[in-house]
Automatic annotation (TrEMBL):
Cleavable signal peptide: none
Family annotation (InterPro entries): CheY-like_superfamily (IPR011006), LytR-like (IPR046947), LytTR_DNA-bd_dom (IPR007492), Sig_transdc_resp-reg_receiver (IPR001789)
Protein name: DNA-binding response regulator
GO molecular function: DNA binding; phosphorelay response regulator activity
Length: 254
């Protein structure tokens, strides 16, 4: 789901921008939600640090009475949200060049001097484009598995993911590939939502059915082609059995 963020210290401008976007959400029934609306950059960055799966549309003023300018905030956003759609709405049109120097790649740079009706039109168009690109990237991400290790973003084919499991000694997730296991700072529920190709066999496991060698219904174990083992809960047994039968996989019941 695309998340909306606004960074603006003019209360009247902030409310106007929020109303424009909110009306478009209702009219078009976009798959979006509100993230953070604030005049403080730390509020936005804290939300992105809290949830590393966010893909957002960010409406940023350039000159804000805060520790960060809008351009500085955009630079930090881009580090955390690689697929961010960033729109600057500002009175400082002369600073547009700086966004290229910082390699921010904004979706738009809107001059407030155009007047609010024109700004509104451009915001509506940018919202439409951002949503279309989000849906396109969502479809592409369905074929790719994206994850962060430290400050680095990695992508791998979803077919290379064998399974995910909850780490026993932390609130993290372990990604299992053929010859590699990687600890991720994400939530299992978010992974289940973002990667519907994977099956939630158990509250602690998300598995790739294509990697399963066989399932032992009595032991409630899932055995993978690389000899790794995961588990299936009792309430998910019948659903997994049906999916396995559709894929003509081996099911052991004795």
């Amino acid at each position: 789901m695309l998340s909306l963020f606004i960074y603006e210290d003019d209360a009247q401008q902030l409310l106007a921008e929020r109303e424009v976007l909110n009306n478009q959400m209702i009219i078009n029934d976009f798959d979006v939600t509100w993230g953070v609306v604030s005049k403080h950059s730390v509020d936005i960055l804290n939300e992105l640090d809290r949830d590393e799966t966010i893909t957002g549309l960010y409406i940023l003023d350039v000159e804000v009475d805060d520790d960060m300018s809008g351009i500085e905030l955009a630079t930090e956003i881009r580090k955390r949200d690689t697929f961010a759609k960033i729109v600057f709405v500002t009175s400082h049109a002369e600073m547009a060049l700086m966004t290229f120097e910082r390699k921010i790649e904004p979706l738009d740079y809107i001059d407030k001097g155009l007047g609010f009706e024109r700004v509104k039109e451009k915001l509506i168009d940018d919202f439409r484009v951002a949503n279309e690109r989000y849906l396109a990237s969502k479809e592409e991400k369905g074929r790719l598995f994206s994850y962060k290790v430290g400050a680095h973003l990695y992508q791998t084919a979803i077919g290379e993911v064998i399974f995910l499991e909850t780490a026993t000694n932390s609130h993290k997730i372990i990604l299992h590939k053929w010859n590699e296991s990687i600890e991720l700072n994400v939530k299992m529920n978010d992974m289940e939502k973002n990667y519907p190709a994977l099956f939630r066999s158990h509250k602690s496991y998300l598995v790739n059915l294509d990697w399963i060698k066989d399932v032992d219904l009595k032991k409630k174990t899932i055995n993978f082609k690389n000899d790794a083992v995961a588990y299936v809960s009792y309430r998910k047994l019948s659903e997994l059995k049906r999916l396995m039968e559709n894929k003509k996989k081996i099911i052991k019941d004795n």
